[in-house]
Specification:
The protein has helices at residues 12-30, 63-75, 91-102, 106-118, 127-137, 182-198, and strands at residues 2-7, 36-41, 167-169, 175-177, 208-209. By secondary structure, it is of the alpha/beta class. Strand 3 (167-169) and strand 4 (175-177) form a beta hairpin. It is globular and about 45 Å long. The model is unreliable at 48-57, 158-163 and 206-212 (pLDDT under 50).
């Protein structure tokens, strides 16, 4: 069973949604369920080329909201320290996830990139930083001496006119948008798995959005 996850590493809602999805996926697999996660890259306006340190939409989040985000993330095992964030162009990070996917470790790579950005204050636009993160996960770069970026599928870039992220697309046609709850992700994984096992996909269902927190 495949679930598509459209996201940006520099998006705090993507980070929160992915942390919750990881928990739901772990439980699903522990119960005998099969699951493949397909990562779809998306670039928010704050992670586009030319972003400089200290800039970007994260600077506009009210202090009270920042505290709410940090508390919600901590519940799901993700430390979010917005004061340490180094705004960065995320195209290379997305390419690294695609490279990791070809080697079967995309989920671990994505999780490490989110921690690097939101917890560790690392510059995920820097090739040397990405090389170190790749090595920690065991991802082999294609021809390190040939260039500064992993060779992988092109990043599909979108700006403010595109759909917001994260977006979870399930094989039964359900689309969940935003940092949806752990309960919603658990429920949809169960339902999609049941449909998958029956071998007849449901008609596309209306996209569903939940409150971010």
């Amino acid at each position: 069973m495949k679930v598509e996850f459209t996201h940006d590493i520099a998006c705090v809602w993507s980070a929160l949604g992915y942390a919750r999805f990881q928990r739901a996926a772990e439980e699903h697999r522990a119960g005998g369920g099969e699951l493949e996660v397909v990562f779809r890259p998306y670039q928010t306006s704050g992670s586009s080329a030319g972003t400089s340190p200290g800039s970007g939409p994260i600077q506009l989040v009210p202090a009270v909201r920042v505290e709410q985000i940090a508390r919600a993330a901590a519940v799901d095992g993700l430390v979010v320290d917005l004061d340490r964030i180094v705004p960065a162009h995320t195209a290379h990070a997305h390419r690294l996830i695609a490279l990791a996917a070809a080697q079967g470790v995309a989920e671990d790579m994505a999780a490490r990139l989110y921690r690097a950005y939101f917890s560790d204050g690392m510059d995920i636009g820097d090739a040397n930083v990405l090389r170190g993160l790749a090595s920690a996960i065991g991802v082999r770069w294609n021809g390190e001496s040939e260039g500064e970026r992993p060779r992988a599928e092109p990043v599909r870039s979108a700006r403010a006119t595109g759909p917001r992220v994260p977006v979870f697309r399930f094989p039964d046609g359900t689309v969940l948008v935003g940092a949806v709850s752990l309960a919603a992700l658990r429920s949809e994984l169960r339902q999609a798995d049941q449909t998958h096992r029956r071998g007849r996909p449901s008609p596309d269902r209306t996209p569903t959005a939940e409150p971010a927190l």
